[in-house]
Amino acid sequence: MPVYQHIAAYDATVEDVWAWYDSPGAFRRIMPEWEGIRPVQAGALVDGAKTRFRVQLGPLRPMWVARHYGVVQGEVFNDVMEKGPFGAWDHEHRFVSTGADTSEIHDTIQWKLPFHPLTFWTAPFTVKGRMKQMFAYRTLRVQEDLKRIAMYADQPKQRVLISGSTGLIGMQLTAFLQAAGHEVIRLVRPSTQLPSDVQHETCVVWNDQTGEVLEGSMEGFDTVIHLAGAGIGDKRWNAKRKALIESSRTVPTEQLVGLFGRLEKPPKTFLCASAVGIYGNRGEEKLTEDSPPGENFLATTCLNWEAAGVAAKESGIRTAWIRTGIVTTPMGGALQKLLLPSQLGAGGPAGGGRQYYSWISLDDQIYATYHLMMNETCEGAYNFTAPEPVTQKQYAKALGRVLRRPAFAPAPGFMLKLMLGEMAQALVLDGQRVFPNRLLESGYVFQHNDLESCLRQCLGKQRIP
User: How much of the chain, in percent, has pLDDT values that exceed 90?
Assistant: First the structure.
């Protein structure tokens, strides 16, 4: 059978790298963002444990079932495909110490395509390129996770409660915190449907409209991270949808903060989501955390959202508001919606393209949240945007370069308004030029300062020697 080999080097001990791989969140962290993988079951690193997930092959989503075998704690584990799209797949992960604080993982994969004698000639463009990109992505993700975890290795692990843990950011944040060794518990509503691979995890169930705790306890958490809220771009706006967008943020936040005041052991830290929409449509004005809020619907919503959490600060809980920009990942949000038209060569300027997009990579969104969580001096409002905001036209051109597609076909503003209504103005045609001043001043170092490097990593288009 053909053999693929890869060596990844890490500035961490074998024990630390193994612990990362053996954490409940490792599988979600290691999944390439562009592959569209849907986890079903994540197996622990023990003989016989199985990992199940669905992969995307064009319109098909076949199930991949892998069984672990030959596990030697801290040294090696293997997984063999029992069901899946390949004719065969047998993967050895060998952990090798290379120094007092350095190590490597040696990956060796024996594989073959279905009907291999007839299909082997397609491998250079159906398999090998994807393998290279997958391992480049995996190596960078694990290296960066380990680096961020090591920065706070001298601090005690925390007990963390997260609302909105089933959302795009919440799922990755939960997985990262688990990989970092923290105890993570999900705050959910009775109607919340957890993905099948995390259904066994501990939850606190509450009524977010009344603050009543239905199952579990809110006592004794070190940090509460509140991310819940109805999707802003999920559905066309009308009066009912706009009311839900605001109330799904303000009411649960008020109830959560009110609940803190009734606890014997309230949290020490409260991190509450917000958004750069608080600044409204501001053209080319340079915006920082000290800039005044805007006056449109999103600005008013964010202002009320942040105000709903002020009581936590007043009660002595260290409180920070995360004003998130455009989270750039193909797994959801703006980039996911832009991918198909951009791949078809229709990803040009929208409404002239002069409006600013203040973006941030998914990794920096996660790492910056961890930075606020672990730094006791961080409180108040923080802009979660990359240091280099771009215009919508620049965003489209960068995406076109990465995808090797033209990016000049314009999308007139009136057409977008016809298709999306009021939402088009707020989410596509309006813009904010936002800078993360307070985050940088607090010592945070971005993984992705420029948009193209972010797009190349998350879309599997990295330049590999």
Answer: 81
Cα 316 to Cα 273: distance, rounded to the nearest angstrom: 19
Joined tokens for residue 411: 């999308």
Mean pLDDT to the nearest integer, 313-325: 97
- Give the domains, in start order, of the chain with CATH numbers: 3-150 (3.30.530.20), 159-458 (3.40.50.720)
Tokens of 303: 């202002």
* Average per-residue pLDDT for the chain: 93
pLDDT of residue 430: 85
- Secondary structure of the chain in HEC code, one letter for each residue: CCEEEEEEEECCCHHHHHHHHCCCCHHHHHCCHHHCCEEEECCCCCCCCEEEEECCECCECCEEEEEEEEEECCCEEEEEEEECCCCEEEEEEEEEECCCCCEEEEEEEEEECCCHHHHHHHHHHHHHHHHHHHHHHHHHHHHHHHHHHHCCCCCCCCEEEEECCCCHHHHHHHHHHHHCCCEEEEEECCCCCCCHHHCCCCEEEECCCCCCEEECCCCCCCEEEECCCCCCCCCCCCHHHHHHHHHHHHHHHHHHHHHHCCCCCCCCEEEEEEEHHHHCCCCCCEECCCCCCCCCHHHHHHHHHHHHCHHHHHCCCEEEEEEECEEEECCEHHHHHHHHHHHCCCCCCECCCCCEECEEEHHHHHHHHHHHHHCCCCCEEEEECCCCCEEHHHHHHHHHHHHCCCCCCCECHHHHHHHHCHHHHHHHHCCCEECCHHHHHCCCCCCCCCHHHHHHHHCCCCCCC
Between 409 and 98, where is the model more confident?
98
- Residue that wins the pLDDT comparison between 292 and 350: 292
Render pLDDT for 212-262 as a digit per residue (tens, 0 to 9): 999 999 999 999 999 999 888 888 888 999 999 999 999 999 999 999 999
- pTM for the structure as a whole: 0.95
